[in-house]
Amino acid sequence: MPTAKPAPPRTCVATVSLSGSLTEKLTAAARAGFDGVEIFENDLLASPLDATEIRARCADLGLTIDLYQPMRDIEAVPADLFAANLRRARHKFELMNRLGTDTVLVCSSVSPHAVDDDALAAGQLARLADLAQEFGVRVAYEALAWGRHVSTYDHAWRIVETAGHPALGTCLDSFHILSRGSDPRGIEDIPGEKIFFLQLADAPPLAMDVLQWSRHYRCFPGQGGFDVAGLLRHVLRAGYTGPLSLEVFNDVVRQAEAGPTAVDAHRSLLVLQEAVGRVELPAPVVPTGIAFAELVTPDAEPVTAVLGALGFARTARHRGKPVDLWQRGEARILVNTAGAARRDGTQLAAIGLEFPDPAGAARRAEALLAPVLPRRRAPGDTPLDAVAAPDGTELFFCATGHPELPDWRTDFEDLPVTGETIGPDRSPAAAPGDTSAAVPGPLRVDHLALSQPWHQFDEAVLFHRGVLGLDARESVDLADPYGLLRSRAVSDPAGRVRIALSVGPGPADDTAHAQHIALATADVVAAARRFRAAGGRLLAIPANYYDDLAARYGLPDDECRTYRDLGILYDRDGRGELRHCYTLTVGRVFFELVQRDGDHPGYGAPDAPVRLAAQHGARHLGG
Ligand SMILES: O=C(O)c1ccc(O)c(O)c1
Ligand SMILES: [Mg+2]
């Protein structure tokens, strides 16, 4: 007989991980699909609801209260202090009875009064557990990574084991364990039933004081750099059957709206449970290319002038809407003037991603709580699955040129095209042997760069990883003259779909909120010259940059002069070279021409501060 799959664990979120009042937090947690919550003491103290009302509210919302936390500075203290701690604890246990919750988290002491004496700690925790038992409460002892004498999970467990009390167990918290670099394999030595609670959080790799790291930078699993799934596997192998609970302290999350945060959090737990085989989701379908990028503009002229100078041709027009398809090689850009009322001017509103199984990719996105958009934007349109990314960008699940699948291009009627860019079959023009390849210019989209709203950067990374199956690189900081940008690239393993996600310093900064479409070319110098000869305007880069470049890389003078003349930036690493330049900005959008040689994997991060400064000084085109 096949063994039954273990039921998916229950999911919880700590109230400290959501913003707002306690009732706002509870409502957001319930709406996002969590089974329960950890109530953080301050949220209760600050609430106008009393414990029985909070209990009733949770029950109405279908939430259990799985943990009350934290109790601090309890153990390993002189007798008189411990007596006072027990009085405090009695009050909390009474409160927990009214709340209807049976597990309390006690974190390892940070008090200067605590002594380094495991036997004393164990004895006092056993006495606390005795008292807890009278109230039907269990005590879960957690090692804070900055605990005064107990800072590792194995140490906390030794004390719990020594105490040997049925109402005393341990609470594991992935942040405390992984931030200390502890080996999580030892978790399997703890009997599962003695792990009373499990808290999960990720964090970006930062070399800093661990308390500050924990209190400000924790993020949801899949958003940072820890192997949270690896840790969870050990916990499940130990036999833990309790809830998976997210406990994130994060400065951005504290300011963001609770509703979207709770959805992001739940998505994180779904991806994590999938990684350890506890939920089945539609399998990831990794995109294999960019079918199109769609610009919405109140005035098509400025942006189509740039496209024309880049060598794009208008090849087709939508049958029912003012949307034109502009194409050059494999790069396809839709210019949509139906969004004329948009306040921001020209912007990148939608992306078509190429999938081997678009319907499967869409099912996964939906299972991971992505907002599903109508399959047809207008009557008569080809039905395409689409979802909204966290920043509102519409993502279309495409299969271009597969006769058995709906093709977005059937909504478009070919226009007569003259010129060099498109072959007679309207297929990509830059194939070897194609005469048009001799004309320098873009061949395909190299990457898209999307600036994210200030509070949705981590969410966007998880979305692109979890929903689209892309790999994320480490985050890099880019200095803009008026603030620091953070950028993180996601891509498929073959580098056919590259998206640079960034987050700007503040909501009012236009440059930081620009989006761009980078176009791959085999010869950026020739492509830039052609663009300029066709009337295009390139972003000028200061001479100082080129003096430095010559010194840094020992480039020949004439090469540097050429780059300077065209505003081409140059970067080199062990794997290859990157040469790239930028058009002026139209609305929120600009274009980049990119030449990668060797296997250069980058996006020009070392040059970004110079580029950003130049953009602040540059004129923007209308539109
Ligand atoms: O930062 C803290 O004090 C704190 C409190 C309770 C926890 O469970 C925790 O992991 C950290
Ligand atoms: Mg914790």
Automatic annotation (TrEMBL):
A divalent metal cation binds at residues 142, 173, 199, 247. The keyword DNA-binding does not apply. Pathway: Aromatic compound metabolism; 3,4-dihydroxybenzoate biosynthesis. One of its GO terms (biological process) is 3,4-dihydroxybenzoate biosynthetic process. Mg(2+) binds at residues 447, 516, 592. PANTHER family: HYDROXYPYRUVATE ISOMERASE, XYLOSE ISOMERASE-LIKE TIM BARREL DOMAIN-CONTAINING PROTEIN. It catalyses: 3-dehydroshikimate = 3,4-dihydroxybenzoate + H2O. Pfam families: AP_endonuc_2, Glyoxalase, Glyoxalase_5. Its EC number is 4.2.1.118. It comes from Streptomyces griseoviridis. One of its GO terms (molecular function) is isomerase activity. This is 3-dehydroshikimate dehydratase. Belongs to the bacterial two-domain DSD family. Residues 418-437 are annotated as: Disordered. Catalyzes the conversion of 3-dehydroshikimate to protocatechuate (3,4-dihydroxybenzoate), a common intermediate of quinate and shikimate degradation pathways.
